[in-house]
Structures are given as C-alpha cells and as structure tokens.
UniProtKB/TrEMBL annotation, chains A, B:
The keyword Kinase does not apply. Residues 13-328 form the FAD/NAD(P)-binding domain. This is NADH:ubiquinone reductase (non-electrogenic). Keywords: FAD, Flavoprotein, Membrane, NAD, Oxidoreductase, Transit peptide, Transmembrane, Transmembrane helix. The keyword Cell cycle does not apply. It comes from Luteibacter rhizovicinus. PANTHER family: EXTERNAL NADH-UBIQUINONE OXIDOREDUCTASE 1, MITOCHONDRIAL-RELATED (PTHR43706:SF47), NADH DEHYDROGENASE (PTHR43706). Belongs to the NADH dehydrogenase family. Its EC number is 1.6.5.9. GO terms for molecular function: NADH dehydrogenase (quinone) (non-electrogenic) activity.
Amino acid sequence: MHSDDAARGKRHRVLIIGGGFGGLSAARALAKTPVEVTLVDRRNHHLFQPLLYQVATAGLSAPSIAAPLRFILREQANAFVYMDEALEIDRERKTVRFAHGVREYDTLVVATGAGHAYFGHDEWAKDAPGLKTLEDAFHIRRRILLAFENAERETDPAKRQAWLNFVIVGGGATGVELAGTLAEIARHTLPREFRNSEPRDANIMLVEAGPRVLPAFAEDLSEKARKQLVKLGVDVRTGGAVTAIDAHGVDLGDQHIAARTVLWAAGVAASPLGALLGAPVDRAGRVQVLGDLSIPGDPDVFVIGDLASVNSDGKPVPGVAPAAKQMGAYVGSVIRARIEDQAAPAPFRYRDDGSLATIGRMAAVAQFGKVKLSGVLAWWVWLIAHVYFLIGFRNRLVVLMDWASSYWTYQRHARIVQGDIGRDDPPR
Amino acid sequence: MHSDDAARGKRHRVLIIGGGFGGLSAARALAKTPVEVTLVDRRNHHLFQPLLYQVATAGLSAPSIAAPLRFILREQANAFVYMDEALEIDRERKTVRFAHGVREYDTLVVATGAGHAYFGHDEWAKDAPGLKTLEDAFHIRRRILLAFENAERETDPAKRQAWLNFVIVGGGATGVELAGTLAEIARHTLPREFRNSEPRDANIMLVEAGPRVLPAFAEDLSEKARKQLVKLGVDVRTGGAVTAIDAHGVDLGDQHIAARTVLWAAGVAASPLGALLGAPVDRAGRVQVLGDLSIPGDPDVFVIGDLASVNSDGKPVPGVAPAAKQMGAYVGSVIRARIEDQAAPAPFRYRDDGSLATIGRMAAVAQFGKVKLSGVLAWWVWLIAHVYFLIGFRNRLVVLMDWASSYWTYQRHARIVQGDIGRDDPPR
C-alpha cells in the first residue's frame, strides 16, 4: 500500500471538481502530462445525460448510461478519483474543503454543471420535478408509472382523467423527448395491461413559453418537430407561460389544466459552487470566464461546462455536452502548455458539430451547419451518434438491443417502480 | 372505459395479496377458471429473488430480474392488478382494507412472504442490512461500493482496513452467494482502479452460527461449498454466533472484528400480515395452515409461500421459491374444484425438485435427491436453471450476456452508487 504523498511526489496538482463531460474530458486530456490529476465528484459515476430521459421513461436501465468514474480512468496512471462533495473554495490558500477533508491544488478546474431553475418559484420543485441526475430519472419514472397505477385504481372519472393528464413544461430537447416518449408509452406500451382505465385516454401536453419548440434549431425544423409531436398525439402549446403549478395541475394563462403529473424541463441554474468562487456570475449563476476559461484575476482557476459563461465568435457557447467536452480538452491543453513552458493556446473557440433532438419512433430533427434533416433519417443519425458516444462496448450493445426490442414490441423493459406505494403515496 | 363493477359481474372474487412466486402462481393457475382474480402488491413488479444478490453486488441491473406484474398478467383477461398496501383483514365481513380503499373477497389468498429477522436485536438492522427487496439490494450495493471509496480516501491504515473488512452473517444460500461474489469483486474487479488502497487487502468473513454452511444441503456438499469459498479467499467461521453488531464491527465470541460493512443473511420473519389474520402462527410468525393451505376454521382464506407453515410427508415445507410456486398452483386447483363443484384435491404435498446454490466463478453445489453435484457442473446447472426461470426473453438474453461479459472481463456493469455521497455519509 502506498500513501497519497508517496504517489504524489512533487508533481503539479490539478484538482478537478465534477465528473461530467467537462471534468472527465479535462482529466483525460492530461493523461500524458506530468501532473497529478485528482477528479472529485459527489457521485461515483459519469452519466451520459443525453439519454437520461430514456431512464426516466423506463426504456433503459441506469447502468446502461452510467459508468464508474474510476473505471473510466483506470488506465490513466496519473489520475486519482475520489467521491466527495466540495463545500468551500479558498483561492488564497489554494485549497478546497470537501465533506471528508481538505485538498490542496496548484490548478483548479471547476466543472460542477447546472441544476434546475424554477424562475423564482422554488415551491414548484416538489410538484414539477426536473431531470438532471439518475435520482431525478428514477423519481420521474416513479411518478409516471404511479400515475397510470392510480388511474387504474381511481373510480371517479374526473379524478381518473387527472391522473392521465401529463404536462411537460419547457419545449427544449428534454421536454420534446419526454413528451414524445410519454405519448408512445400511453398509446402503445400500456394499453393491453389495464382493465378499468384506458392509457390511450392520456393527454400529453407540452408547454413552451416561447414561440416555438426546440428554439436552438432553425425555424423550419422547429415546425417539423411540432408536426411530428402532434402526429404522436402530443398537445403542443407555445407562446404562453405556466403561471402556477401545484399537486393538482398547472395554470396556463386563464386556463387551469388538471394534471397530477407535471414535469419540468424549462430552466437550468448553475451549480452553487460557481458563486463560491468570488468571480463575476451572470443571471443564471454561471461564472463569466476569460477567453482561456480561467476566472478574471486568477489564472490557476478554470471553470468549464454548463457552469461557465463565455462567448465564442461573438455568441454565447451553449450548455451542451459537446461544448463541455471541448472546454475540458481545451483547459487540458492550456495546463499542458504552462507545464511545458509553451506559448498559451489561442482563446477557446466552440466548434458547433451540429444539433440533434429526437422526438419519438423514427422521428427526430438534426442540424449540421446548413444541412437540416428531419424524420427517419435524422432519427438514424441521432441513434448512431448517441450509441457511438456511450461509454463501453457492453452499454452500446445493450442500448441497441433495448431500442430494437422496444421498437418491435413497443415494450419498455425498465418499468420498475422503486419502493412501496406506501400509505401516503400519492401524498396529496 | 368500463367500471370495476361492470367488468366484475357476479363472478366469484379471488383476492390475492402479494405478487411473489406464490401469489403470481395462484393468479396464473386461475386463468381459465370463471372467477375474478385481483392481485394486489405494494410494488408494481414481480421480483426474481434468487438473483437479487447479483443486483446487490452490481452484476445485474434491477430491470433484468424484475417485471411489472400487470405486464406478466396482461393476457389473462380475468386478472386485475392493483398497486396498494394491505393494512387490515376483516374475515367476518370478508374485506381487506388497503391504504387506498377497501376490497371485498369471496376467497382470499395471502402471499406476502417474509422479511428479515434479527432474533430480538432489531437495533442491528441499520448496521447489518438484509436482502429481500430491490431497495435492499440498492442499499447493499451502495454500502459495498462506498466502503471501497472510503478506503481509498482514508489515510489511517487501521481505519482503511476496517473499510476493507466485510462480515456476512448467515451461511445459507444468500450469505454464501454474497461472500463469494464480494471476494471476486475485491480480488478481480476493482484492483487496477484504486491508487491509495488495495482492494485485494479486503477480508470477506462469512459467519455461520451452526456447524456448517448451506445447512439445507447434504454434509459433504456443505464441506465442498466451504472449500470453494476458502479457495475464493473467504474466511469461513462456523459454530459461533455474532453477539453484537454496530457501525464499527461485530463481536464473535470473545473476538471483536473491526468491519464497517456488515450484511445480514441470517434469519427471516414472516410478513406482519400473517398475525393480522387471527390464525395460529409459529415462532417465526408463519401462519399454521391446514393440509389444503387454508387457515383453521376459515376455508375461504388461504396462506401460501414463505408466510405459510405446513408439513409435507412429515417434514416442514422449506421457504423457497419452488415451494411457493407449488402452493400457488395448488390453491388455484382447490379454488377451481370448489367453483366447479368437484371433489377437493388431496392435501398439499411438496415436490422437492432439488436445491442449488452458487458460490462464485464456476463454483456451485447442487442436490437432486441422491444426485449431488459440485464445482463447474453444478454451476452450469445453476446458471441454466436460473436463466430458464427468469421472466421474459429479453431478461434471459441480457442476464446471459452480462454473465458472459462478467466472466471474461471480471467487470460488473451495474457499479452505480445511487445518490450523492452527502456530507454525513458515512454517517458515523
């Protein structure tokens, strides 16, 4: 057994907080640099967030889209992985206080991402859960599956229908994916299994305050996505914001919509760790970093991924997985240049490799520069891209198998409600 | 939409509480009998408990060994499935009060199984979790994986070793399976991934109060199992009971064993619903039923599976899955005979199809009457039997694939700790 100190020697210490796309890619970029890389995350796994909605909708099991961080980095001899929670950053002493001890750094990379934002209505959180972590996905899965169970047990028609009404708030990629998949579950997966209630009676409503769904895409693709959603049976409502949410439904303008299941896909707020850095933050709490992704006045502290606010070619870099990966790799190159006394790389530039969003069975939209795709072809591109970027051969194979089986049988294999129904469940 | 009443008509109502092997098999046995079958479970899924230890040790994901009850019974037109929790049984009024309403029955089948028993030491439960439900499996998985994470973070050698010491209490099939698998994880799965600690330093201790492990098997097979465990690196201690358990270890006779992870596989206690029936129960809380599995004085109430205490050929029927299945099928035939005014079947007889227990890689023991197997051959029989009885083609395929990949790579794909590490975790 060798101690921390012996293994560490006198190498430059790079401390990375967060094992998402940004943090992991920074760690990997430093594999061949003579530094000691320490990656700390509150969780033991890296999560392939683009497929998290599939766990929430019972299509995939959690281990298919998550892998232990120390497994991913097992061959990287200069990498140490710890499971711990960062509580405080002391930039003067160059230390981070974690729940289980203090760690020193020479260079710090903060990559703790973002959570949900309820635009000043944090009281909505309990009735409109969002989707960022595996636990969120299990919670949403439980809510969706229990809604159909409750409808089956309910004898009052109006109350039953309220269990069959689903409102998804937010028309970005996650909202669109959840709505399309829910419609498929209600129409195709569940019908034969219920005796008193009719899953096909479910109403899936997608609410977007802006004028169109998938606002990050070109207008004609937004329109195509809307049409594909409507074809799947989704009630798409754009141009009006939700003004109230409680356990029994939402208010949308003058209208009250009775719905016992409301899902939140509308806003993100940067991780609270950003504010602890003492650097300037934007309205969403993201840290405004310099062109080399370090914070103003402290070249030894970098912020990357969804927690960073930076422009590239005059436009804000979007909070997406490819941007986080690129930032991680870039920061790795900046650190390497410093260690090797090379010239600093040019400021970070985001390379837009295109955008993809899936809607449902063989329905998706894709945009690569001027090339726009929709429908079946876009869906195949989406599928291949997502399977390709999954970590691990086993996961690729199982995900492909699950999708194939799901496609032919309309079944979803992960329809497991964790835990008892309990006496107070549903709690209201 | 049709109401409960319309669908029900005037058919004889069979209410089954519990969707384990017993309850599910009773429901299926009544598929072609003109009765209304209502199956109620607190959970939405049937669980293949014989492989639960694989979920606890990160080898399989939950959906591989669990399937929604209503999916399993979807083609059975006379079966209704509800997710609810039974609170009270009124045998005079022939009603059961559930958390979400009261249901009437003409015939009641109680099949709620068993939980953990700590022999009067319920305070041990928090430090020595048992394995009965998916939540138990996730909790144990979390404890095991966090133990290695904590060892990696710990700098004090004695404290580190305490994180690497594992005590499994109880030398039955579950204890043997957990011990063998843990030894494999420590020796083969994890070693390359840790930098400060050495997973191979883990001590896996299996404690059995009786004179031998796997007491349900013949003596020579117990001895073979012990040898196979020792070969895997398990420290097997028989003939001495644990006298104290807390968060820092166990007392075994005069010896204190420092271990931060203690798992309980020693005793089961019948579901509390048995006591609510007002029928005679044995020391373990199991309901003493008559030869036709009904309770004394009430031919309309049956108790089956682990909750039932009954003799067959002068010997107590063991609390195993095949016995529960046979009881379910038998009670189905009793009810059918009554409905069809046929003579009552002969009293229940347990048909012992043999016993199987796996120990580790290619190591198992099997006993079929006078035929005894051990080692590789027993392991193949175990594998084929377990895959065969899994529900669903997809599960069979994925489980086989996971085992094959686990076998060649020593990896375990479900190494996901659910939830944050948290500030107070480990809490002591």
